[in-house]
Amino acid sequence: MGAVFAFVEKYLHSCRKNLISAELISRDKQSGGMPMDVEIDLRPPILLVRLSGELDHHQAVRMREKVDRELARSRPRAVLFNLCGLTFMDSSGVGALLGRYRKLAAAGRHMAVCEVPAAVSRITEMAGLARIIPFFDHEAAALQHLILGAPEPQKRRF
């Protein structure tokens, strides 16, 4: 088991070294939207998407476009959304995540979500996302699941 964790830690370290970062427009002047950053880290076979800030209607559109472009370009086997930096998410964010899941599943690919902050967990619970998409408490556990086929966490019951 220690070798597996060493592999995942080495993988995480190499991912961070080769980070491809893209910042979405930080403020939508018409809507008064708050900033959101999207970091995309491509380490075949995984596309790691780290979100921070507020994922509202306007930012969800931009996030979806950015992720879809990268999916078309790199065709990863799986995508991991790390939400640890989100401070807010509305139903548009839920729809954007669910849409990426459906798109990936239709292509025979996989998706997981990890490190959901307390400020965001309520809406993900109300939407029942964890019943559809595998959710993990830690990025390393999610990567282990996506890369090595480790078991999914037990489905949450709300």
Q: Look at the structure and give the mean pLDDT.
A: 83
Broad CATH class: Alpha Beta
Number of helices: 5
Q: Separation of termini?
A: 31 Å
Q: pLDDT under 50 segments (min length 5)?
A: 15-32
Percentage of residues in helical conformation: 40-55%
Largest sheet: 6 strands, mixed
Structural class: alpha/beta
Q: CATH homologous superfamily - what is it? A: STAS domain
What CATH architecture label applies? 2-Layer Sandwich
If you had to describe this structure to a student in words, what would you say it looks like?
With 158 residues, the protein is of the alpha/beta class. The chain has a single domain, classed as 2-Layer Sandwich (Transcription Regulator spoIIAA). The protein has five helices and six strands. Strand 4 (78-89), helix 3 (91-106) and strand 5 form a beta-alpha-beta unit. The radius of gyration is 15 Å and the shape is globular. The termini are far apart.
Q: Which features characterize this protein?
A:
single chain; 158 residues; alpha/beta; Transcription Regulator spoIIAA; 44% helix
